[in-house]
Amino acid sequence: MKAIVLVGGFGTRLRPLTLTTPKQMLPVVGSPMIERVVAKLAEHGVTDAILSLGYRPDAFIEAYPDDVCAGVRLHYAVEPEPLDTAGAVRFAAIDAGIDSRFVVVNGDVLTDLDLSAMWKTHLDGGAEGTIHLVPVEDPSRYGVVPFDDSGRVQAFGEKPRRDEAPSRWINAGTYVLEPSVIDRIPAGRKVSIERETFPAMVADGTLFAYPSDVYWVDAGTPATYLQVQLDYVEGRRGPAEPAVASSASIADDAYLERSVIMDGAVVEPGAIVIGSALLPSAVVGQGARVSDSVIGPHATVGAGAQLSDLCVIGDGVDVEPGVELRGVKLPEPE
Questions:
Q1: Is 169 within 8 Å of 147 (Cβ atoms)?
Q2: Quick one: which of 111, 134, 140 has its CA closest to 41?
Q3: Of 9, 129, 135, 158, whose CA is between 20 and 30 Å from 146?
Q4: What is the number of structural domains in the chain?
Q5: How many CA atoms lie within 13 A of 31 on its CB side?
């Protein structure tokens, strides 16, 4: 089984963390996000993952020099220019020589989807394409997908107003596709799978839904990126993982609560860290307080500083001692 993993985006929602690191290479409790995504695919029989790359492809290639990730063989398909979702799928499929049924996943989605069951449903229904759907309270941020009793998708709408959404079921970013879908995607330009390819399949009656109310998080925003860290250490995704890395240094009188402290991170005397994630080699200085925030790798929160309300501190940034920041991103977006 082959899977195309879409990892080519710029990760703008997660800046400044992604100014130096592609989103899917950011750590989730110590393991790169891409490894967690690929490991889940491997559980369901995926043997080959084609990484559809665009932004900073070197980061992936250097991280896996033997072309293996989580036991899965890797193929790198590096786009010469951004081609949007369907364009990226077409480019990766042709580059890797895909000529049979395949899976597509978004590289920033962490889910407990039963991909094996979805694959079987796709086969049994004779679909050209099957898409995973999950229910959400507010569908206005997503592609809403109404479907009939047979599972056939009736429409494919992008980000409707909350009070006008025809369904609570949204596109969850995992697809099982027949190779004929590749032929539907024009070459040589940007093509959106959500705005062009899927609506055309709906019109032909060949797109089906696989609704499943399972754990699902789009980890592409600071809030959701922080959420998935806590989900892993609080046991929402199987056995709870250690919240504090063995190589981290925590002062005896520091206070930690519901936080993830990664490799080489330091929490100095009297510091308080609540509901936050400290990425590798981050430092929280003496008497500082960090709550509901993400401190990037090699960043330093100065002594006595107070950060709250989802501050995001980028790679190597020094926060001045004693300052009080709420919801701030450093460096600030241009």
A1: yes
A2: 111
A3: 9
A4: 2
A5: 15
User: Does residue 180 share a domain with residue 71?
Assistant: yes
Q: What is the pLDDT of residue 161?
A: 64
pLDDT at 159 over 90: no
Q: Write out the two tokens for 307.
A: 């950060």
CATH number, domain containing residue 55: 3.90.550.10
* Domain interval for residue 322: 242-330
Average pLDDT over residues 128-145: 85
Residues 6+ apart with CB under 8 A from 111: 40, 132, 134, 172, 174, 214, 215, 216, 217
Angle at 108 between CA 27 and CA 55, to 5 degrees: 85
Residue 154 included in any domain: yes
Cα separation of 152 and 168, whole Å?
A: 16
Gyration radius from the chain CA atoms: 21
pTM: 0.90
Q: What span, in angstroms and rounded, lies between the C-alpha atoms of 191 and 121?
A: 27
